[in-house]
From TrEMBL:
Name of this protein: Helix-turn-helix domain-containing protein
UniProt xrefs under SMART domains: HTH_XRE
Domain HTH cro/C1-type span(s) in chain numbering: 12-66
PROSITE patterns: HTH_CROC1
Record CDD domains: HTH_XRE
Alphabetical list of InterPro entries matching this protein: Cro/C1-type_HTH, Lambda_DNA-bd_dom_sf
Cited Pfam families: HTH_31
Gene Ontology molecular function terms on file: DNA binding
Leader sequence residues: none
Organism, as annotated: Nonomuraea solani
Length: 118
């Protein structure tokens, strides 16, 4: 199972190390204890949005950039863990018309339905 807090911690640590900054320096600037920041970087603690904003401010990096990097890594991890649909017989796959009412299959986004059908 992919843990969001681990990916987030990895991204924060990588940014800090790339800048040549110490945990102590970033924790002081972010006004968070050194131990807590260390636990966040190791993926052992969940960081609140306020704490993330403070850490990003201390690193001089926009929160959106950090979240984008986490999202990209999460997507890659999902792709690596996902079963290949080519191995599933066609008759066992769900078609768009079998999805939940109000979903893409009900033409909420007809252009997406057309792309998936292609």
């Amino acid at each position: 199972m992919i843990l969001l807090r681990q990916l987030l911690g990895d991204v924060l640590r990588r940014l800090r190390v790339r800048q040549g900054r110490t945990l102590r320096e970033v924790s002081t600037l972010a006004r968070v204890s050194l131990g807590y920041l260390s636990e966040v970087e190791r993926g052992q603690k969940e960081a609140s949005s306020e704490l993330l904003a403070s850490i990003c401010g201390a690193l001089g990096v926009p929160l959106s950039q950090v979240l984008r990097e986490v999202s990209d890594q999460f997507a890659l991890a999902e792709l690596q863990a996902a079963p290949v649909m080519a191995d599933v017989p066609e008759h066992e796959r769900l078609s768009l018309s079998e999805t939940v009412p109000g979903s893409i299959g009900d033409s909420v986004f007809p252009e997406v339905k057309d792309m998936v059908a292609a």
